[in-house]
Hints:
This protein is α/β, with parallel strands linked by helices. It is 43% helix and 13% strand. The protein has one domain (6-133): Rossmann fold. The chain has 6 helices and 4 strands; from the N terminus they run H-H-H-E-H-E-H-E-H-E. A 4-stranded parallel beta sheet has the order 1-2-3-4. Strand 3, helix 6 (114-118) and strand 4 (132-133) form a beta-alpha-beta unit. The protein is globular. The protein binds S-adenosylmethionine. S-adenosylmethionine binds next to helix 1, helix 3, helix 4 and strand 2.
Amino acid sequence: MGHDVSGVAAAFDARAGTYARSDWHVRYAERLVELAAPSPGMHVLDAATGTGFAALAAARAVGPTGRVVGVDVAAGMLDHARRAAVAAGLGSLELVRTDATDPAGSAASSRSPPCGRAIPHPRGCSGSTPRVTG
Ligand SMILES: C[S@@+](CC[C@H](N)C(=O)[O-])C[C@H]1O[C@@H](n2cnc3c(N)ncnc32)[C@H](O)[C@@H]1O
């Protein structure tokens, strides 16, 4: 069981709109993915994905044969990520609302624990369009 992240989620929900317009954060996240250099077909988990800047860049890098899961506790941040993913047509990106520190992965999403979807088994991930669970 993870710790109480409701305060963190509320704080980031409140600033989600500002965050999503931050050029600095986009550049930072894209540089991070550039350094990590994920290849086509790879599976990537972006913990605390926020508005999805790094997850979007990773999804572009891994392409349609890869898979990226972004997890975050703040539904408002994830909503921006989801809209950006839909606009970019990045069907390899899945967005899940959950606590990344919760080993059970069920703090905020009993339907979609991130470890079951993100990491080991691509066929365990459903759907081809970006979505937010939880
Ligand atoms: C400063 S933002 C960074 C977002 C993104 N990684 C980026 O580089 O743009 C921090 C994010 O971490 C999320 N967060 C904090 N604690 C978390 C946790 N335990 N599990 C999942 N997300 C968490 C917040 O909701 C927030 O969206």
